[in-house]
Task: inverse folding
C-alpha cells in the first residue's frame, strides 16, 4: 500500500505544473477502515421551520458537536453540508484606481486593524496586571470604518472603496435528507474503542441534546455501524443454537446412545463458556473476524468431539 501511494504521488507530481496556480496541492491518502465514520446525525429544520443553513450550522457546531465530543470513545466529529459565516469585502476597482490605492494596502489595513495584541504589563508593589489591546472588529459594519490610506490629509475608509456584506462561506459539501437540504455530523471513533459502546453513548447524548436545541431544529440518527454489528451477533447466536441442536440430533441418530450424545453435546457449551470467560478476563471484545472464526470453530469442535468419542468407544 505504501509503495502504491508513492507511485500515485509521483504521477501527480508530473502533471502538477500543468494545473492552474489557484488549484490546491493534491493529497493522496491511504484508506483505513478504522477511520470510517461509525455514526451519522442529521440537523435539519422540523416541518414548518425556516431556519437558514448558516443558523443550522451554528447550532450544530456550538451546541450539538460540543456535546457529542464529550462522549467516551469519540475521536473526531466532522460537519458535512454546513455553511459557516463569512464577512465578504468586495472591492470596487474604479475607486481604488481613482485614489491610487493598491489591493495589498487594503489587505494590510484589514489585517493590522483586526487583531488583539499584548501591550505589556503594569506592575505595582502588590499587583501585576497584563495589558491587552482589543483590536477585533466587533460587527461587519465596523469594517467600513477601517482607515485604508490617507489622501490630501484626509482618511480613506474601507467603506469608500469596497462593499462589506455579512455573508457565508462558499459551499464545499452537500447533505440531503429525504431529498431536502440538511447537514450531517459524522463521528469517527478513537483508536481501540468499542464501536457498540461508543454508538450507545452517542445515542443517549443525542436524546439529551434534543432538549437543548432551539424549537424547530430536528435531530435524526441517519445511520450507525452498531446496527450491523448487532445483526451479525444475532445471526451468529442463532446459528450456534441451531447448529448445536442439529448436531445433538444427528449424533443421537447415528450413535444411538444417549450417553454419547450428552457427552458430545456438552463439549459445545463448555468450550464456549471457557472461551468467553478468558476473553472477559483479558478485556477482549468481539468483532467481525472473531465472530466468523467462532462460527467456523464450532463445527470443528463438534467434529473433533465425535471423533474422540468414537475412539474412546472403540477402545473400550
Result:
Amino acid at each position: 500500500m505504501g509503495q502504491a501511494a508513492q507511485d500515485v504521488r509521483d504521477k501527480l507530481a508530473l502533471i502538477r505544473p500543468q494545473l492552474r496556480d489557484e488549484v490546491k496541492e493534491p493529497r493522496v491518502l491511504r484508506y483505513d477502515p478504522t477511520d470510517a465514520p461509525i455514526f451519522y446525525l442529521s440537523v435539519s429544520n422540523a416541518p414548518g421551520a425556516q431556519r437558514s443553513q448558516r443558523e443550522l450550522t451554528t447550532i450544530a457546531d456550538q451546541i450539538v458537536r460540543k456535546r457529542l465530543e464529550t462522549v467516551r470513545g469519540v475521536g473526531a466529529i466532522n460537519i458535512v453540508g454546513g455553511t459557516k459565516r463569512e464577512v465578504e469585502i468586495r472591492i470596487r476597482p474604479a475607486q481604488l484606481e481613482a485614489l491610487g490605492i493598491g489591493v495589498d494596502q487594503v489587505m494590510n489595513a484589514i489585517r493590522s486593524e483586526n487583531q488583539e495584541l499584548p501591550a505589556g504589563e503594569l506592575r505595582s508593589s502588590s499587583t501585576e496586571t497584563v495589558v491587552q489591546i482589543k483590536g477585533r472588529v466587533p460587527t461587519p459594519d465596523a469594517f467600513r470604518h477601517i482607515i485604508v490610506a490617507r489622501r490630501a490629509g484626509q482618511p480613506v475608509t474601507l467603506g469608500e472603496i469596497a462593499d462589506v456584506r455579512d455573508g457565508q462561506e462558499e459551499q464545499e459539501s452537500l447533505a440531503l435528507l429525504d431529498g431536502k437540504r440538511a447537514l450531517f455530523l459524522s463521528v469517527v471513533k478513537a483508536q481501540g474503542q468499542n464501536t457498540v459502546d461508543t454508538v450507545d453513548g452517542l445515542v443517549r447524548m443525542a436524546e439529551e441534546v434534543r432538549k437543548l436545541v432551539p424549537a424547530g431544529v430536528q435531530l435524526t440518527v441517519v445511520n450507525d455501524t452498531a446496527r450491523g454489528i448487532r445483526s451479525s451477533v444475532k445471526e451468529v447466536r442463532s446459528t450456534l443454537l441451531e447448529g448445536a441442536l442439529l448436531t445433538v440430533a444427528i449424533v443421537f441418530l447415528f450413535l444411538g446412545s444417549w450417553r454419547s450424545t450428552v457427552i458430545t453435546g456438552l463439549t459445545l457449551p463448555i468450550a464456549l463458556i471457557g472461551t468467553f470467560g478468558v476473553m472477559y478476563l483479558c478485556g477482549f471484545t468481539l468483532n467481525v473476524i472473531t465472530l466468523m472464526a467462532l462460527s467456523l470453530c464450532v463445527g470443528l469442535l463438534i467434529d473433533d468431539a465425535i471423533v474422540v468419542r468414537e475412539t474412546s468407544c472403540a477402545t473400550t
